[in-house]
Specification:
Two copies of one chain form a homodimer.
Chain A: E1 2-7, E2 22-28, E3 31-35, H1 41-45, H2 50-56, E4 61-63, E5 82-86, H3 90-95, E6 105-109, E7 114-115, E8 121-123, E9 131-132, E10 135-141, H4 150-155, E11 157-164, E12 167-168, H5 169-173, E13 188-196, E14 205-210, E15 213-219, H6 227-235, E16 245-247, E17 269-274, E18 278-286
Parallel strand pairs in A: 5-16, 7-13, 8-18
Antiparallel strand pairs in A: 1-2, 1-13, 2-3, 3-4, 5-6, 9-12, 10-11, 10-16, 11-13, 14-15, 14-17, 17-18
Amino acid sequence: MRLATVRTIGSTEPHGTEPHGTETVRVDGDAVTTIPGARDLGALLADPDWRARAARADGPTRSLASIPDTAWAPVVPHPGKIVCVGLNYRTHILEMGRELPEHPTLFAKYPEALIGAYDSIVLPTDADDCVDWEAELAVIIGMPARRLDEPAARAAIAGYSVINDVTMRDFQYRTPEWFQGKTFEATAPFGPVMVTADEFPWPAVVSCRLDGETVQSARTDDLVFSAATLVAYISQIVTLMPGDVIATGTPGGVGHARKPPRYLRPGQTLETEVSGIGTLRNSILAEA
Amino acid sequence: MRLATVRTIGSTEPHGTEPHGTETVRVDGDAVTTIPGARDLGALLADPDWRARAARADGPTRSLASIPDTAWAPVVPHPGKIVCVGLNYRTHILEMGRELPEHPTLFAKYPEALIGAYDSIVLPTDADDCVDWEAELAVIIGMPARRLDEPAARAAIAGYSVINDVTMRDFQYRTPEWFQGKTFEATAPFGPVMVTADEFPWPAVVSCRLDGETVQSARTDDLVFSAATLVAYISQIVTLMPGDVIATGTPGGVGHARKPPRYLRPGQTLETEVSGIGTLRNSILAEA
């Protein structure tokens, strides 16, 4: 199944906060069907019966084309936790002359950073010189996960989506901790849909394009720590809950590592794709 | 005013998750008065009228002594965000031979890490060899804060509390990012009360005792980045919301920096105090 959160008419909000006015839908080809009683995908996943409930929804349907770009909310608008992973693509680590890490590098992003799949990314005035892209496969949790082994961790994954961990490099590197460059408000597109784990073709290709030019492309079988490994590892630290998100890390090709470095500029279009899921498409704007 | 969140009878839970069964109280000397309609201090602070509402509550009162240690919940049990600060005590930075930082070092902790003021700290089996103390002054936000200057940031502070940012040093240092050592489930005591900003005597003394031996002690006027500076700085990155928490950093004297290093051991009692607020008192236990 392909599931999404869409803003209901009259409630399109640019900042991903949408406290009300969203609904969960199932996308079957061109048909979009409302799943009754779930205000967003996170709320649906909190129901242990979410899978059957999503599958059996047979309410009114509309066409995919009838949903405007502005209606796509972050696929989980308010995850309790977003755990991000650094240094996780083997080829990129080795080409940088580093050793493969023994443990995953983890940091956090707050839900306030999320925007919808087609929302604009507004460069913050105080960090607009060095905003960078990081295309990533996102894992979405489907049941409480605490101290799980890998098979159980795999079963706790509801599905996969696409996220761009857009990063303010200045803030990321001004102190020893990356976090402050990773959680700027309304900067990280997330969606457009979650593909349930049973239908996600593995390995997938994670790619990023800037004005049509491919700047990142890698296969998910190049991940040092797989989705299930990450869920198991994090679950030894803290309980992962339904709707929680793991951003699994970005491959080589970010702008900051280029010579000379490249950053996002107003007027550009950023596209982030994971094969088998979909594509985020975001206009880059200067702050008014 | 001194405000707190207490577990209601029959719902004492050891892991700080308490989805139900708490209430907000005002503490006046030995009298504890329920504030009706606020399931915890975070819910109260979300009401713009929280101050007047807390002040006028005149419901049934009980004595402070009648409240068992196990009833004290984390003073805000479910903050949307906990932002932690590193490297923030001037004397400690200078004695370590470092330069004073230009920007605050920030990282995150998840609410699942919080426990009540007198709950036991259970050393996780997979990290029990190097669990360390970090006594800190906590700032609690009282209104939405976005891109504020320092005077406005100061006005957005609801009050102050006490937190121990208990840290798994092994996990903190096994990758470049500290986060995974900072967010272990049910390890960080927080409370017992929030003292509103108008009644908090500044500077205060932040101290930590292990089995009665003082291991940390510093004054809050030694902070490099003050509470208002931190709120202003973070608000340029992301909107701080009522109930959000900033842990302002720890002074010198942590166990890991000692020669030889010292860590928490089963059977010990950890006390964390901020003058004018109160004292956390936590037994250290081995995991069963």
